[in-house]
Design a protein that fits this description.
GO molecular function: oxidoreductase activity, acting on the CH-OH group of donors, NAD or NADP as acceptor
Number of strands: 10
Oligomer: single chain
CATH superfamily: NADP-dependent oxidoreductase domain
Site (Lowers pKa of active site Tyr): 74
Organism: Pedobacter metabolipauper
CATH class: Alpha Beta
Shape: globular
Largest sheet: 8 strands, parallel
Active site: 49 (proton donor)
Domain NADP-dependent oxidoreductase: 16-257
Strand content: 5-15%
């Protein structure tokens, strides 16, 4: 498993398992346990997912040394603000049955995320979090956060896939030494992703699947990935991307698929923003 150094020199695996939409706690626990047994060391969850306790149970049952694991969770909108963030952090830590977090992210650029960031800075200085970052922050919000706070985010977790490649945003993050981490790397199957002729054609050259080619494409761009799967064979498939490298021709071919638009929704649309601020868990 390849790792990358974050901007505070903490090492993070480039590939991990995401558990979004695995709402059945027994299924989530078994999925995470299987992933860890298959070699995964980064697990990405969030308070909003409602499955932190299942992730914690799997970590405990895996009996893997804690220092070998990299655990990420996220702070939801309703918990924004300095004091609320500290309480939410304590709750997440309890659910996960951990003494510290490897990475804590602000899930959305909404609410009092300034207060949240300052609470996270304090938790980081206290040694309770190894790295702090953000999720779904657009460039203007990233630059603003950096300009008015002490600690630069280590990670920005955003939607990145062949249909929404975000090259300019990735460039801005890289310039500021912030790691881009992709969610929805496979576009959740939208736009007939798993039958895409361009990516499948590239896959035939290397005897690799569309999923494997996509993950490799992201990692070669310097983007970390957290693909979700509840099937062991798919987990192993997603993990097996270290034995080949895409050519510049292949990378350029995938670049032509970019639409410049999210395959889900625009976070900056007023109706979307209103919807997100009202979501609870």
């Amino acid at each position: 498993m390849q790792k990358i150094k974050l901007n505070n020199d903490v090492e993070m695996p480039l590939l991990g398992l995401g558990v979004f939409q695995i709402s059945d706690l027994d299924e989530c626990e078994q999925t995470v346990l299987t992933a860890i047994q298959s070699g995964y060391r980064l697990i990405d969850t969030a308070s909003f997912y409602g499955n932190e306790s299942a992730v914690g149970n799997a970590i405990r049952k895996s009996e893997v040394v804690r220092e070998e694991l990299f655990i990420t969770t996220k702070l939801w909108v309703q918990d924004s603000g300095y004091e609320k963030t500290k309480k939410a952090f304590d709750k997440s830590l309890k659910e996960l049955q951990l003494e510290y977090l490897d990475l804590y992210l602000i899930h959305q650029a909404m609410g009092d995320y300034y207060g949240s960031w300052r609470a996270m800075e304090d938790l980081y200085k206290e040694g309770k979090i190894r790295a702090i970052g953000i999720s779904n922050f657009f460039p203007d919000r990233v630059v603003d956060l950096i300009a008015h706070n002490e600690i630069i985010p280590a990670v920005n977790q955003i939607e990145v896939n062949p249909f929404y490649q975000r090259a300019d945003e990735h460039g801005l993050l890289k310039k500021n030494n912030i790691l881009t981490q992709s969610w929805a790397s496979f576009a959740e199957g939208k736009n007939d992703f798993f039958n895409n002729e361009v990516i499948s054609g590239i896959g035939r050259k290397y005897n690799k699947s569309i999923a494997q080619v996509t993950l490799r494409w992201l990692i070669q761009r310097g983007i970390a990935v957290i693909p979700k799967s509840v099937r062991e064979d798919r987990m192993v498939e997603n993990y097996s991307i270290w034995d080949f490298e895409l050519s510049k021709e292949d990378m350029d071919a995938i670049a032509t698929l970019d639409t410049g638009k999210s395959v889900f929704f625009d976070h900056r649309d007023p109706e979307t923003a209103e919807w997100l601020t009202k979501l609870t868990f």
